[in-house]
Design goal:
10 helices, Dihydrodipicolinate Reductase, domain 2, alpha/beta, 26% strand
């Protein structure tokens, strides 16, 4: 198989290292607006090759690529995913927050249906999505997500700055936001991608409730998912270690992508 990674941040770099060791891939490509960062990763991975992030270059490479992994940004999802799916190529999306926008989501989903390219979204930094998915086959009354993170995760957040909230000055656990997932991802695009994932699986962006908490004593990113439905009751809590280079992102998010890529490459899915 051949694969293309779009984005060379913390997750993209981790994926490249993992794919380098997978026998299913004989070659993979990397692209990023920051060419120096991309080439640095390529220099460490013999199987990797750099390609320019221009539409022309990517479209040319898609002709012999089996899977594209977006690990860049919501903007990258809006721009590249329709192109990839439009050529009938499978794509795995990390910046699922882009699908909080109805137009973007419907456009991508419809192109996938029409052109045959599969659109994958890994579970990310949260556990319990398998149970939620099963529960969605019947009635779900409520889905609630509470995310607790340290001050470093909320640095330079425009929503908080506009409200005059200095997360570095907090002395105790403080609720920064409480409301529907649609608003949560709008105000905290780097912190609650998982809220969009569970919303799309469950009862939607407007009914899924999110509580975002800053804990000055926290050294991990905690997600607590609670679901009530015809099946019964789910409570699932995940304490994630963050990337040292990107405190807003949990290491488990990258691992979920690696696990998904292994399943896609091996064509065996257990626990879906």
């Amino acid at each position: 198989m051949r694969l293309l990674i779009i984005g060379c941040g913390a997750i993209g770099a981790t994926l490249a290292e993992a794919i380098q060791g997978m026998e299913e891939f004989d070659i993979f490509y990397i692209t990023d607006k920051n060419e120096d960062r991309a080439r640095k990763i390529v220099s460490k991975c013999p199987k990797a090759k750099f390609i320019s992030p221009t539409d022309e270059s990517i479209k040319a490479r898609l002709k012999n690529v089996d899977l594209v992994v977006e690990a860049a940004s919501q903007e990258a999802v809006r721009h590249y995913v329709p192109i990839v799916l439009g050529m009938g190529v499978d794509v795995l999306v990390m910046s699922v927050g882009a699908f909080a926008d109805d137009d973007t989501r419907e456009r991508c989903f419809n192109v996938a249906k029409r052109k045959g390219g599969r659109l994958y979204v890994p579970s990310g930094a949260i556990c319990g999505t398998d149970g939620l998915h099963s529960a969605s086959a019947d009635v779900i009354q409520s889905v609630e997500l509470m995310s607790i993170k340290g001050p470093k995760s909320f640095q330079e957040n425009e929503y908080l700055l506009a409200k005059g909230v200095d997360v570095n000055a907090l002395k105790e656990r403080t609720i920064l936001f409480e409301g529907p997932a649609r608003e949560a991802i709008q105000h905290f695009p780097k912190n609650v991608n998982v809220s969009v994932t569970i919303s799309l699986i469950g009862i939607g962006l407007d009914k899924t409730m999110v509580k975002l908490v800053c804990d000055p004593m926290s050294d991990c990113n905690t997600h607590r998912l609670e679901v009530w439905g015809a099946f019964g009751h789910i409570v699932c809590e995940t304490d994630n270690l963050p990337f040292p280079s990107n405190p807003a992102t949990s290491y488990l998010a990258a691992l979920s992508a690696i696990a998904a890529i292994k399943r896609i490459a091996g064509n065996v899915w257990i626990g879906i």
